[in-house]
Amino acid sequence: MHKVRQELRGSGELLCGKNTLIRRAMTTFFSSLPYLETLMPVVRGNVAFVFTNDDLKEVRNKIVSNVVSAPARAGAIAPCDVIVYACNTGMEPGKTSFFQALGIPTKISRGTIEIVSDVHLIKTQSKVGASEATLLNMLNISPFTYGITVLHVYDQGALFSPSILDITEEAFIKHFMTAIENVSSISLALNYPTIVSVTHSLINAYKDVMAISIASDYLFGATEKIKDMLENPDAYITNVPVSTVAETVVPQKEESEEEDEDEDMGLSLFD
């Protein structure tokens, strides 16, 4: 708690106290600050308030980054899984029966107890037994961490989930643009002009006017050319010169049949 106070110095104030006193103090301000009533249901258990005007995401990171390792205590509820990994414990062989009672496979190596394989000792949300707590303390293992967790974000009378702080600016802009597109689509479907749909409505109306103008031969400047293009499409065909591709003809070499002639080696037997 003191580390969190130091981290928040200059950017926020951490306030905690008894829940009854907090509720009583909040009740006295209901007449002038009625939106404080939304905070009453969350004042339960070990709660604290952080007041800040800085960036909420940065303040949240300062709070959750300060955690303290804590040993396992008998009867406590495990907030996470606890796994004892294979290792040499350095304990004397006389404590082998203690490991056997917990179902942990061991062997004697160089006069000390060695855990042969990994063991899932405690499961999440299960109660820590006395034997498990004693074993973890003997192995100098502090499996749990304790710190302050952000449960709610409060702003201008509304409570939000802390996951809202993970939304990036790019994601917010994307959702905002999607909402604008949906509003525009609904407005066009209902023929109800809005700021986001009036541009599309004007374009669609202009297209309808042009279609009626061409169909009724009641032309104006913008439709005269379109009408002429529909009636004389050949006049608007651009003459593109056909590029002649020079074909290179490779003359085929005629293979002359060479007759095999016997060369006179001067060894004729009939001379």
CATH architecture of the largest domain: 2-Layer Sandwich
Q: Structural class of the secondary elements?
A: alpha+beta
Say which CATH homologous superfamily of the largest domain is assigned. Ribosomal protein L10, N-terminal RNA-binding domain
Give the number of helices: 8
Listing every helix as H and every strand as E from the N terminus to the C terminus, the arrangement reads HEHEHEEHEEEHEEEHHH
Percentage of β-strand residues? 5-15%
What is the name of the CATH class of the largest domain? Alpha Beta
Main beta-sheet annotation: 2 strands, antiparallel
**Distance separating the two termini:** 125 Å
Rg is 43 Å
CATH fold-level name of the largest domain: Alpha-Beta Plaits
Helix content: 25-40%
What is the general shape? elongated
Which residues sit in consecutive blocks of at least 5 with pLDDT less than 50? Answer: 244-248, 254-271
Order of strands, main sheet, comes to 1-2
Number of extended strands: 10
Q: What is the averaged pLDDT score? A: 80
User: Domains counted in the coordinates: how many?
Assistant: 3
Family: Belongs to the universal ribosomal protein uL10 family.
Organism: Pneumocystis jirovecii
Protein name: Large ribosomal subunit protein uL10
Keywords: Ribonucleoprotein, Ribosomal protein
